[in-house]
Amino acid sequence: MNILFVCTGNTCRSPMAEAVLKSMCAGKEGFKISSAGLEEGGKRMANDAVKVLEEISIHCEDRLSRKIDERMFSDADIVVAMTSAQAKTLEKTFSRPEKIYSLSLFAGQEITDPYMQGPDAYRKARDLILTALPKLMKMLEKRV
């Protein structure tokens, strides 16, 4: 299953979700997990995002952000936005709304952008991602 996480800039939330899910799926066959943003890419992952993941023993590869394109969207079996507004943007941009989900549905609240708000905001986003991903995986297991 090819899972694509999407946020605004692909420097905070979506790469954190990507890293956490890769950690959860370590050793499992059949998962391709990646992330992208709605805005132009080429930026490094936010330092605070890297640090709050390291606090829970998840280490991220050095990576640059990238902007979602038609091929990434088409290749994904499921596209998971961090907020309902981002999911709506994806639905307007791409022609397959049935494969788009908002991680906020699984977290119980929107996963707001922690960019430039300090480590506590990144921890809150990380913790919401940690709450949401097991629920997302449970839904995906029913689909397989």
Helix and strand layout, with pairings?
Layout: E1 2-7, H1 13-24, E2 32-37, H2 47-54, H3 70-75, E3 78-81, H4 84-93, E4 100-102, H5 104-107, H6 119-143
Parallel strand pairs: 1-2, 1-3, 3-4
The strand line-up of the biggest sheet is 2-1-3-4
The helix/strand series, from N terminus to C terminus, equals EHEHHEHEHH
Uncertain segments are none
Q: What's the mean pLDDT score?
A: 95
- Biggest β-sheet: count, sense, barrel? 4 strands, parallel
Oligomer: single chain
Strand content: 5-15%
In CATH, the homologous superfamily goes by the name Response regulator
CATH architecture identity: 3-Layer(aba) Sandwich
Portion of residues within helices: 40-55%
CA-based gyration radius: 14 Å
Distance between the termini: 9 Å
CATH class label: Alpha Beta
Give the domain tally: 1
Shape: globular
Overall number of strands? 4
Structural class: alpha/beta
> Helix segment count?
6
According to CATH, the fold-level topology is Rossmann fold
Descriptive account of the structure:
There is one protein chain. By secondary structure, this protein is an alpha/beta fold. It has a single domain (2-143), classed as Rossmann fold. The chain is 45% helix and 13% strand. It is built from 6 helices and 4 strands. A 4-stranded parallel β-sheet has the order 2-1-3-4. Strand 1, helix 1 and strand 2 (32-37) form a beta-alpha-beta unit. Helix 1 packs across helix 6 (119-143) and helix 2 (47-54) crosses helix 6. The protein is globular, with a radius of gyration of 14 Å. The model has no long low-confidence stretch (mean pLDDT 95).
